[in-house]
Amino acid sequence: MSIVDESRQETPAANWLDRPLWGRITGWHLAYAAIMLFILFTRLWDLGSRPYDHDESIHAWESWKLITGQGYQHSPVYHGPFLYHFSALLFGLFGVTDYVGRLNPAISGIIITIVPFCLMRWLGKRGVLLATLLMAISPVVMHRSRFLRHDQNAIVFGLIMMITMLHYLERRENKHLYLFAAALAFGLTAMETIYITCAIFGSFLFLYYLVQVKPKSRAGLLDYPVMDLMIVMVTLLLPLRQLFPSSSLATTRLITAAARWYFRASSRRHCCSSASAWAAGGAGGAGLWARASFGRSF
Predict the structure, then answer these.
(1) Residue 111 three-state SS
(2) Residue 100: C-alpha distances to residues 88, 111, 126, 139 (Å)
(3) Contact 98, 48 (CB under 8 A)
(4) Residue 25 gets which letter from DSSP?
(5) Least trusted range by pLDDT, from 19-28, 51-60, 181-190, 244-253
(6) Cα 262 vs. chain centroid, distance in angstroms?
(7) 26: which strand partners?
(8) Is pTM beyond 0.85 here?
(9) In this structure, what are the phi and psi dihedrals at residue 2, rounded to the nearest 5 degrees?
């Protein structure tokens, strides 16, 4: 089922953006390249000259301890472990400097600005150009791309979830479901805001089913890609049950029964089984991590 309104797709216009300049290179290509060069310059230039903020110093210190063999112990106060492990990797590759310490958010900030290009089918060329330009000059996006915190990592994974979700709803290809599961799994290791992202996307999927799928449905409930996405999302969010020990056993039995029913009934089982197995494995590991971390904190 297409989620794109064919009647609203962009048609080529004879203006400077679409006019060929050199071979296949058009004005749009030049404008996009100029914006990306501006983004690269503003995200990567002179990262090390500004003194570290209090939060930045903590994150850089923990990353340095990890790369120097002093280990890492998770604390919910400092969000997820992804930032520390990725920053430690950068320290190992490029050396321990103030500049390298801020490369993590800078790289994530650059990836964020590339996301509109992946939405060309829905935004059109002009929409991609405008969205990228707004991200390029946004004070908030630029500042966070030069500040060592978890926000940019979490945003990257949330945006990957959005892109793969839209493509999976459109084409139902396995690779998009795998990437959706991977982005959600990594997002859970980045920052707690991923739960808000899941609430937003989960609400969208539910409303999409009610408004777009159910009224026109002639097949079974499980014959639509929206159900695959919701199953993967729920599976990876299972560690949340650790916050409610009294209902953990009942919740586990309910989810297990629902999963068995799903895989027995689904006629597209081969499209979802691998991603769900991956998600279940990730949920199991995340559950152990949540029990250890939350058990010490609450």
Answers:
(1) helix
(2) 10, 17, 35, 22
(3) yes
(4) E
(5) 244-253
(6) 26
(7) 20
(8) no
(9) -80, 135
Which strand (E) or helix (H) includes residue 22? strand 20-22
The pair of structure tokens assigned to 39 is: 């983004």
Over residues 263-287, the pLDDT tens digits come to: 555 544 444 444 454 444 444 444 5
Q: Where are the alpha helices (DSSP H) in the chain?
A: 27-44, 54-67, 82-94, 98-101, 103-118, 120-137, 139-144, 151-171, 174-188, 194-208, 225-236, 248-265, 269-297
The tokens for 121 are 């089918």
The CA distance from 226 to 262, in Å, is 13
Task: Spell out the residues 6+ positions from residue 113 whose beta carbon is closer than 8 angstroms to its own.
Answer: 36, 39, 132, 135, 136, 141
Nearest-Å Rg of the Cα atoms of the chain is: 22
Question: Given pLDDT bands bounded at 50, 70 and 90, which one contains residue 242?
Answer: low
For the stretch 92-124, pLDDT in tens is: 999 999 999 999 999 999 999 999 999 999 999
CB atoms within 10 A of CB 50: 12
Which residues neighbour 263 within 8 Å (Cβ) at sequence distance 6 or greater? Answer: 269, 273, 276
CA triplet 177, 152, 103: central angle to 5 degrees? 115
Give mean pLDDT, residues 56-79: 92
Query: Which among 292, 298, 196, 187 has a CA at the least distance from the CA of 236?
Result: 187
Q: In 258-278, which positions are buried (b, 16+ CB within 10 angstroms) versus exposed (e)?
A: eeeebeeebeeeebbeebbeb
Contact by Cβ (8 Å): 206, 216: no
How does pLDDT run across 6-38, given as a tens digit for each residue? 444 544 444 777 777 787 888 899 999 999 999
- The two structure tokens encoding residue 159: 């945006």
Dihedrals phi, psi of 102, to nearest 5 degrees: -100, 5
